[in-house]
Amino acid sequence: MRRVRIKDAIKRLVYYAGYEVRRAGGLGWDPFRDMRRLATHPHRPVIFDVGANVGQSIDLFRRHFDHPIIHAFEPSPSTFRELQRQTVDIPDLHLNNCALGSRSEIKLFAENTYSELSSLLEPTADRGWEVEKRYQVEVQTLDEYCAKRSVTHIDMLKLDTQGFDLEVIKGGSELLALQRIQLLFIEIIFSDMYEGLPRPDEIYSFLTEQGFSLVSFYTFYHEHGRADWADALFVNPEYRNVPQ
């Protein structure tokens, strides 16, 4: 009996040791480490941070990549001012006080008292969130923005637009057709958080049709015993990088 217990203890130790190794070095634990590992060109990559808020992701990208060129987008004027303040003197950073979408237009933006929840979509009534104000914002498309600035490819496209992510991706149809986006880091919402949200399977189907494969989910959050939202990383194996 004692020998069996010792054997079981050793098995548990081996299992948890392997678990810690996977956690430290395997895919699926740290999205920024995974992006670094999967990036074709981790040195001086072109990164788009759509829904930059006050620069949290900009800081993380700069920690994980060498000399990144970052294009950041934040439609809220007040949040954008804080983003400017937080990122003073950062080289190769292009800040844009606008939103991205599937077409160029002027669209109503709902600014929440908690800036990270602000969206071009209206929050559902059952959430009880307080929209502080609504106002019109400029919406551009990925294709138009890249054409104007001679951006030929995107190594990493990070999206955190509170339910508007699929619209942003659709605005890059030319880049997608040419296989010019390699990594896509996106927030997927499973609950009824905003009005007009695309279903997770719609997002997945659209991305796989464009040649992307799912790498992993990260930071899975729950609300009332149900899946609420999670971050997901996709990679395009057919990515065609074009030097700037």
Tell me what you see in this structure.
The chain is of the alpha/beta class and 244 residues long. It has one domain: Rossmann fold (3-Layer(aba) Sandwich), CATH 3.40.50. It is built from 8 helices and 10 strands. A 7-stranded mixed β-sheet has the order 3-2-1-7-8-10-9. It is globular, with a radius of gyration of 20 Å. The model is unreliable at 1-7 and 9-22 (pLDDT under 50).
Number of domains: 1
What is the strand tally? 10
- Estimated helix fraction: 25-40%
Residue-averaged pLDDT: 88
Instruction: Tell me the radius of gyration.
Output: 20 Å
Low-pLDDT ranges = 1-7, 9-22
Order of helices and strands: HHEHEHEEEEHEHHEHEE
Q: Numbering strands along the chain, what is their spatial order in the largest sheet? A: 3-2-1-7-8-10-9
Task: Give the biggest beta sheet.
Answer: 7 strands, mixed
Query: How many helical elements?
Result: 8
CA distance, first residue to last residue:
67 Å
CATH fold descriptor: Rossmann fold
Q: Find the CATH superfamily.
A: Vaccinia Virus protein VP39
Name of the top-level CATH class: Alpha Beta
Decide which structural class fits the backbone.
Answer: alpha/beta
CATH architecture: 3-Layer(aba) Sandwich
> DSSP strand (E) fraction?
25-35%
